[in-house]
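User: Design a sequence. Structure:
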């Protein structure tokens, strides 16, 4: 069976550039890769065909021979120990292509250019600061570009030299039987160049450790777990690579009075049993100051009162929340003799009224009585 034209296999013109050939190969290899097409013999054969085509067209000498003599020009050069199995192309698939996609070696490794690391800073805020918003200065340790060598890593007046082991490719090929394995160059560690005379300030890294002060504006309504991204405020990239980002993680401290749940605030308000029995007005705190809360006569412990609009406006919107106050009736303590006698007299009048003063107590005891009678 005659072989298809290699340019046709990759879907490119004969005059296509190396970049276009590589791009087409990546697209076709991804399409026909066996992992994406399990148990598909047609896709498997297409994948082998794509690798074979790229192995020839990506090599200057083989490509020239193919352009002049066709398949005969390259078939003659493939011996038992040659590239017959398409090992170099397989290496490109797993190393170069997937490395570029997922941030591994690939093209970035060969040039030594890497994106700087992202940084994380946890900022603790009081509830009031989180609700209203605040601007704060933070100081963070980070890696910045060395000003002495301008990030090159080489001593001023010198520059890095092309690695003699990999000739600047950043990777070397190891022939293992029928397979050609591509590995990171052990001499330059994938950078493609070596620094003979490193910068004394950064010792060849191109970056130095520094602490920098930043002003961070916290928007109103943030809560624990929210993150604020400061683009370009992370660590400097390696050899001209882009700078990473800084993520400020918000953590709101516990408040002595309020608990927050989304846009609502909750608080427990202790009141005297006389206020609960007789009713009246009490002062309750809010984040905006004190307000009056009217307690109805005969209020029971645990009753909830809603103060609308006294909660939080969340950073993502959704309207102003409420403040929910839960009253807790406080039992008097440290009574003197006179107070005890007055309470006893008061209790006597309560007992005389039988069930009308304590309806819950009466119904509860009736339930208990029924429970034991049914046993």
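Assistant: Done.
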């Amino acid at each position: 069976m005659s072989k298809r034209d290699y340019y046709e296999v990759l879907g490119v013109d004969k005059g296509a550039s190396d970049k276009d050939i590589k791009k087409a190969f990546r697209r076709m290899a991804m399409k026909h890769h066996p992992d994406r097409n399990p148990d598909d013999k047609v896709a498997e054969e297409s994948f082998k065909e794509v690798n074979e085509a790229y192995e020839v067209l990506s090599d200057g000498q083989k490509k020239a021979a193919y352009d002049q003599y066709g398949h005969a020009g390259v078939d003659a050069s493939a011996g038992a120990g040659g590239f017959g199995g398409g090992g170099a192309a397989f290496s490109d698939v797993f190393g170069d292509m997937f490395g570029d996609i997922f941030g591994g070696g690939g093209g970035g490794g060969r040039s030594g250019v890497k994106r700087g690391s992202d940084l994380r800073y946890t900022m603790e805020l009081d509830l009031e600061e989180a609700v209203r918003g605040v601007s704060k200065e933070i100081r963070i340790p980070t890696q910045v570009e060395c000003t002495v060598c301008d990030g090159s890593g080489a001593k001023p007046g010198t520059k890095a030299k092309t690695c003699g082991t990999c000739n600047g490719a950043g990777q070397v090929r190891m022939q293992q039987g029928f397979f050609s394995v591509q590995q990171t160059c052990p001499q330059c560690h994938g950078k493609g160049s070596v620094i003979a005379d490193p910068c004394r300030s950064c010792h060849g890294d191109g970056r130095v450790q520094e602490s920098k002060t930043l002003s961070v504006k916290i928007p109103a309504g943030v809560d624990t777990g929210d993150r604020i991204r400061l683009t370009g405020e992370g660590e400097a990239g390696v050899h001209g690579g882009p700078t990473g980002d800084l993520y400020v993680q918000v953590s709101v401290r516990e408040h002595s009075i309020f608990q927050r749940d989304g846009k609502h605030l909750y608080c427990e308000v202790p009141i005297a049993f006389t206020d609960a029995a007789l009713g009246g007005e009490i002062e309750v705190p809010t984040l905006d100051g004190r307000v009056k809360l009217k307690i109805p006569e005969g209020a029971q412990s645990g009753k909830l009162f809603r103060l609308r609009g006294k909660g939080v406006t969340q950073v993502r919107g959704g309207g102003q929340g409420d403040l929910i106050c839960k009253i807790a009736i406080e039992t008097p303590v440290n009574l003197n003799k006179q107070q005890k006698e007055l309470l006893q007299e008061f209790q006597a009048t309560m007992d005389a009224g039988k069930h009308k003063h304590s309806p819950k107590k009466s119904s509860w005891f009736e339930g208990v009585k029924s429970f034991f009678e049914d046993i």
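Residues 48 and 311 are 65 Å apart (CA to CA). The longest strand covers residues 134-145.
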